[in-house]
Amino acid sequence: MMIAVELGLIYAVMALGVYLTFRILDFADLTVDGSFTTGASIAAVGIVSGMPPALATSLALLGGMAAGLVTGLLHTRGRINGLLAGILTQIALYSVNLRIMGKANVPLLRESTLITPLKDADLVGTWASVGMFLAVAVVILALLVWFLHTDIGLAMRATGDNPDMIRSFGVNTDHQKLLGLALSNGLVALCGAIIAQYQGFADIGMGIGMIVAGLASVIIGQAVLGRSSVAIAATAVVLGSVLYRVVIYLALKAGLNPNDMKLISAVLVVLALVVPQWKGFARMGGFMRRRMTAMAETPLVEKEG
């Protein structure tokens, strides 16, 4: 179970990237499946070549941002439909990733990575490592929430909500989309780099289905916590990522065929979209959110009269 929670916290970085395009920009970006592998391949090749793991991971982040920029330029400058632009970049990245790795799989089992200290100390799968990955997720979450409350972040949110209105205030919505897609795919690639180091290899097919996992995390989390504010919505994404991985873990423990995981992921997304529309669930969800709000507003120590 601890492994599932760890993976949920790592994949939360990718889910936050998906949240940025899917919810903030209202942009259906399918570049994710390709940029995830791009991050993994850049990090793996860099580490195998003797590069410090931190530097290789940073380059993976930049590689993902470049992939997002390509999608953005196809959409904003080439006037290609956003969905199609993402598909085109995703397809192109398959060949690019093969070029980067030189082969379909790059092993990291004997290399020093960012995860090596945890493995050497036998902390993987323990509360200690869960706490470390949680700290990383919280830092990235806090930075994203802070950014979305800056002037640029507010302009990006307005671009997704009402592009005509924000253009009337002199904001270039094309630039906002370029920035949002770059940041989103940068986070996705960063997640891919960490996952490659966590599992000990980078593989050309490891990004397949990442967009579904990201959407599942966003939808499941926000079905539980809602999205009344940016902070709550982004926190819900992290929670959704953990819940998604735990459900996958429980499905495997129940004896389901690992080959059916993509089908299970699709079913989870469908349920997360359909179930919240049921009246009973909506009432229960509203009750839970009211309770959480009340708990947050209640002082820890009652004042003595």
From TrEMBL:
InterPro entries: ABC_transp_permease
Superkingdom as given in the UniProt entry: Bacteria
Membrane topology per record: Multi-pass membrane protein
Molecular-function annotations in GO: transmembrane transporter activity
CDD domains given in the database record: TM_PBP1_branched-chain-AA_like
Leader sequence segment: none
Stored Pfam families: BPD_transp_2
Location within or outside the cell: Cell membrane
GO cellular component, one term: plasma membrane
TM segment ranges: 7-25, 54-74, 81-100, 127-148, 178-198, 204-225, 232-251, 263-282
Assigned keywords, A-Z: Cell membrane, Membrane, Transmembrane, Transmembrane helix
Protein name in the entry: ABC transporter permease
